[in-house]
Amino acid sequence: MPPPDTMYCAQQINIPPELPDILKQFTKAAIRTQPHDVIQWGAAYFTALSKGETLPAKERLEIPVATQKTDTGLTPGLLKVLHKQLTPKQSVTKEDLEEKWKDLCLPQEQLHMLLSLGFFSAEIDWMEFFALGCSALGGTILSALKVACEILTDDPEGGAARIPFDTFVSLYSYLARLDGEIPQDQIDSFLKSLQEHVAKQNGMIQVADFYSRKK
């Protein structure tokens, strides 16, 4: 006698009605994100989906710029994913960050470099790490702040990229102090030069307000 779970026809196979849409959304997310290890990333994707957590997926496909070297690892799109996943917490554990970093198939060497640059311990201030991530992408402090504005803004893509001035102050002050070559009076002078203009914009600052200035 055949075992009771033997399939005799296709009609006996029960396909959940939501499965096609789940697979469609997964495929679109994979295309946008372009993970180096689709199996590892896929496991992280479905784990996050099952828990109702932020998915490790980019909002849109990123096209490498002509000057980009072979594989720079972190990108603005991937940093934005990390920010969406970790920003609800003011501080994150090193283990949590390592797990999210691995889920996005990013190189461990780059993570270790950023952790070393920031002198982070077991508990990591997320916005400080975020600032370092922007610095790795931008090169100079002001270029890093431009990246930060473009990631953090609620403006549509290509817009003014406004963020709260308080957030800008925190990011700039941290990067300037970490740089070690910018005197405190120069930091204070730069921020003061922006305050009057920011006051006219309801406490918001945009890239055009600072990007052409000296750091």
Topology:
Layout: H1 19-33, H2 38-51, H3 76-86, E1 91-93, H4 94-103, H5 108-117, E2 123-125, H6 126-138, H7 141-152, E3 163-164, H8 165-179, H9 184-199, E4 204-205, H10 207-210
Antiparallel strand pairs: 1-2, 3-4
Write structural notes for this entry.
This is Ropporin-1-like protein. Its main location: other. Belongs to the ropporin family. It is a single chain. The chain is mainly alpha-helical. The strands form 2 sheets. It has a two-stranded antiparallel ribbon with strand order 1-2. Helix 3 (76-86) runs antiparallel to helix 6 (126-138). 56% of the residues lie in helices and 5% in strands. The protein has helices at 19-33, 38-51, 76-86, 94-103, 108-117, 126-138, 141-152, 165-179, 184-199, 207-210; strands at 91-93, 123-125, 163-164, 204-205. It starts with 18 loop residues before the first helix and ends in a 5-residue tail after the last helix.
The side-by-side strand order for the widest beta sheet comes to 1-2
Low-confidence stretches: 66-70
CA radius of gyration = 22 Å
Question: What's the β-strand tally?
Answer: 4
Helix content: 55-70%
Shape, per Cα inertia axes: elongated
Q: DSSP helix count?
A: 10
Main location: other
Protein name: Ropporin-1-like protein
Subcellular location: Cell projection, Cilium, Flagellum
Keywords: Cell projection, Cilium, Flagellum
